[in-house]
Amino acid sequence: MMNEELMNQVILGDSLVELDRIEDKSINLICIDPPYNIGKDEWDYREDYYEFMNNIFIKLESKLKDNGSFFFFHNDFRMMAELDRLVQKNTSFVFRNFIVWNKRFDGSPKKGFLDGFIVRGGLNSFNKMAEYMMFYTFDNSWKLKEERTKRNVVQMTMGEEILSRTGGLTGWYSNIEMGKNYPTKETIKPITKHLGLTIDDIVPKFRNQKKHHSVWNYDLDAKKVGHITPKPVELMENIILHTTDENDVVLDCFAGAGSTAIACKNLNRNFIMIEREKKYCDIIEKKLDLYTKKVVT
């Protein structure tokens, strides 16, 4: 079990140090909004940015459960490309989606305000009214061959469990073992029977809410209380709903304005927040205190 003193706490400290306190393979979802290194505030620039983020990625990889998910935010595509290269080179995270957070959309109360930036003269490129999310999971197909070898089960034994309509062998099992397909509710049955592995051992959690594709429409957070780049709680809730179940644990090691913590409270998830700036830790604590008082009253 994870150290209980970290659960549902806002930890003041450096991420690279504080992450070592978290038990390996104990987190269901990691969602971070790290500095973009574009100089929006004094905390938003460091000369060793790529080295720092690479070390963060490596540490986060060790903390995530095999069926967990990892998201990070950014708004500079070229930096994101380099960060993704580091992820691919130095971790076993597998890229799943590039998600666009669209801030200007029909029905948004801020659309009229943002339209003003579109129609003004003198533009020589498109206005950026979006941020981006990179979504990763793990490929756990290696467990199948490992367990099959350990139990001395041959592939044909697995394949014979589900035959074609005419009674012939198909490639259903080999495709799963090679990572081409995920097991389904039906194909997991013979896998569990022979290898003891379950869906959660192999398939990353994804609880399809049946309302999103890879472009998400969410308003800017209107309550910029002490932080210039807060993420909307509703957006964070969407990530959490898609990739976790109640009582799962969510980690954010760049906690900032605390949107992730509030989203977890709203959805009955546990959280661990890490933030190096005391003023932001204080803001999160105040938000959580207000949340608790609201619930009690």
Describe this structure in a few short sentences.
The protein is an alpha/beta fold.
Can you offer a commentary on this structure?
The protein folds into 2 domains: 4-139 and 204-296, 3-Layer(aba) Sandwich (Rossmann fold), CATH 3.40.50; 142-202, 434 Repressor (Amino-terminal Domain) (Orthogonal Bundle). The chain has 297 residues and is of the alpha/beta class. The protein has helices at residues 15-18, 49-63, 77-90, 111-119, 142-150, 155-159, 172-177, 188-195, 199-202, 233-243, 259-267, 278-296, and strands spanning 9-12, 27-32, 64-74, 93-102, 130-138, 215-217, 249-252, 270-275. The protein contains 12 helices and 8 strands.
Q: What topology, given as strand order, has the largest sheet?
A: 1-8-7-2-3-5-4-6
Q: Residue share in helices?
A: 25-40%
The succession of helices and strands, N to C, reads: EHEHEHEHEHHHHHEHEHEH
**What do we call the CATH homologous superfamily of the largest domain?**
Vaccinia Virus protein VP39
Named at the architecture level, the CATH assignment of the largest domain is 3-Layer(aba) Sandwich
Task: Name the shape in a single word.
Answer: globular
Beta strand count: 8
Percent of sequence in beta strands: 15-25%
Largest sheet: number of strands, sense, barrel closure: 8 strands, mixed
Global mean pLDDT: 93
What number of domains?
2
Count of alpha and pi helical runs: 12
Low-confidence stretches: none
Within the CATH hierarchy, at the fold level, what is the topology of the largest domain? Rossmann fold
SS-derived structural category: alpha/beta
